[in-house]
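User: New here, any thoughts?
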Amino acid sequence: MCGIVGLYLKNKKLHSKLGFFLSGMIDNMSSRGPDSAGFAIYNNLKSKNIYKYSLSFKNNASIKSFQKEATKNFKDLKFTNISDHTIVFSSLLPSKFIPYLRSNFKNISIVGYGKSIEIFKQVGNPKKVVKKFKLDKFYGSHGIGHTRMATESAITTEGSHPYSTGEDECLVHNGSLSNHNNLRRKLIKKGKIFNSLNDTEVAAGYISQKLSEKKSIKKSLTSCLNDLDGFYTFILGTNRGFAVLRDEIACKPAVIAENKDYVAVASEFQAMAHLPNVNKANIYEPEPGVIYKWGN
């Protein structure tokens, strides 16, 4: 049992409150996932040439040492440090910067990258994780969050959601996949790199692979219904919005609340009870096997 949440703000006047609203949603899902928490914030920069690399530091790796070493090799780097995470801002292409990171810094995990996305995740009580990363101060157009109750893999930052396996992409998942090991092997042969044994990372990699083959979000998620065995409710984030999919059996709960200002998605309604005018929103349960998307 895990908790998933998503919030897409239609009203730009609410963008400054994205982190505040999302932190409340994650707090209210703490009971569904006490082991770890994470979130992805989408905030498009004014410059279209700047990438953001979200990095998590393991085993007490020194953020200052990394920054000192990295700036020796690349001058075009700026940093924002929050807890044990750093966001690196640079015009360096992922094809150049990511191999450098993987080759030279074994105690750093690349948890996400793109021109819009920032990802933070950590082991521990979700309410404490949200406070450590000061989520309530973040702003942007949309965000996705997760609270985890570990089942099939270890309680580590690498085992936490969201998972990002492509530029400005991320996935959170409530459920369990039975064929993720076979699927992981197939994706590795196609060049995908995985940092955990978590089934959700495989699902994220699968969807990224489909999107890289120029398939639409709708076609990529439709393929999940054919190729992913198990139970799942997904929220897939992109730089433009997010999409929701429940498997065709739909034993994992989900509820959507939509009005003129926002779309909220969560495992339970209590996650969105604090949102403005939510009781006047159109509230419904997503149908099994049906893809819902906003902004994309």
The longest strand covers residues 170-177. The CA atoms of residues 83 and 212 lie 33 Å apart. Residues 199-212 form the longest helix (14 residues). The chain has two domains: 3-42+121-294, 45-115.
